């Protein structure tokens, strides 16, 4: 991306970070998501909730470029990216974490984060080892601290607890200059202590970085989000503040009455 294009994209702050209009994804005759319309503001923290099969992960795959929608449009920071491949969306500030950890288990925490910073840098294919004072090394250290892993920075990733690995994934997503991060069930499998750590990390992210979180644990989702989108059968079912969603009778009937909010 040219410097002029980067400046232009960076200047788009008054509009939406993400805008979906009528997004539908068909697999044969099955509509995994249907006519999804949603607008997320820059810096907004949004939760997308719903039981298994509601279409949440398919929605993420369409936003990130893993799937191209069958119909509808996707705009990132004012730019139509509907047909863009995933790497072009990453260049525009989009990041994602996954349900299954994608980490280098044989490398240290610090090295994992450094490689993530290097991977979105223009010199990523250089074979030179980092020198003392390398700004990417310094940035990696900042990200390690931001996700509360400073004490474990030299440990191999394979030696980390599951919760620490999820924290590390957030650090990788923060590499480069992200403006919107999609978090796919980051609290899944975490202990109560680890969930509290996750809530603290997400709450302390810089204000200009927005995120959308898919989460079965409604207690986590409602504490970190300022707005909630409920999905049901591939469609947007309800939108509102965490308090509005929690108190909505239809939401309670569909998601709270049988405990699916906690386990999906």
UniProtKB/TrEMBL annotation:
Residues 18-258 form the ABC transporter domain. Signal peptide: none annotated. One of its GO terms (molecular function) is ATP binding. SMART domains: AAA. The keyword Cell inner membrane does not apply. Keywords: ATP-binding, Nucleotide-binding, Transport. Coiled coil: none annotated. This is ABC transporter ATP-binding protein. The keyword Transport applies. Pfam families: ABC_tran (PF00005), BCA_ABC_TP_C (PF12399). InterPro entries: AAA+_ATPase, ABC_AA/LPS_Transport, ABC_transporter-like_ATP-bd, BCA_ABC_TP_C, P-loop_NTPase.
């Amino acid at each position: 991306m040219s410097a002029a294009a980067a400046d232009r994209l960076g200047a788009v702050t008054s509009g939406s970070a993400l805008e979906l209009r009528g997004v539908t994804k068909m697999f044969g005759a099955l509509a995994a998501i249907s006519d999804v319309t949603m607008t997320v503001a820059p810096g907004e923290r949004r939760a997308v909730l719903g039981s298994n099969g509601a279409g949440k992960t398919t929605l993420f795959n369409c936003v990130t470029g893993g799937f191209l929608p069958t119909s509808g449009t996707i705009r990132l920071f004012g730019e139509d990216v509907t047909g863009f491949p995933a790497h072009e969306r990453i260049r525009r500030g989009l990041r994602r974490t996954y349900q299954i950890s994608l980490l280098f288990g044989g490398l240290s925490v610090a090295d994992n984060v450094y490689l993530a910073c290097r991977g979105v840098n223009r010199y990523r294919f250089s074979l030179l080892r980092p020198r003392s004072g390398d700004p990417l090394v310094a940035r990696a250290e900042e990200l390690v601290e931001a996700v509360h892993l400073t004490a474990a920075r030299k440990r191999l990733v394979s030696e980390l607890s599951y919760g620490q690995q999820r924290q590390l994934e957030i650090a990788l997503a923060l590499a480069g200059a992200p403006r919107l991060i999609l978090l796919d069930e980051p609290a899944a499998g975490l202990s109560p202590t680890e969930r509290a750590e996750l809530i603290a990390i997400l709450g302390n992210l810089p204000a200009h970085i927005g995120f959308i979180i898919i989460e079965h644990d409604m207690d986590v989702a409602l504490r970190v989000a300022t707005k909630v989108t409920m999905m049901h059968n591939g469609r947007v079912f309800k939108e509102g503040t965490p308090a509005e969603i929690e108190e909505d009778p239809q939401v309670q009937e569909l998601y709270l009455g049988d405990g699916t909010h906690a386990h999906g």
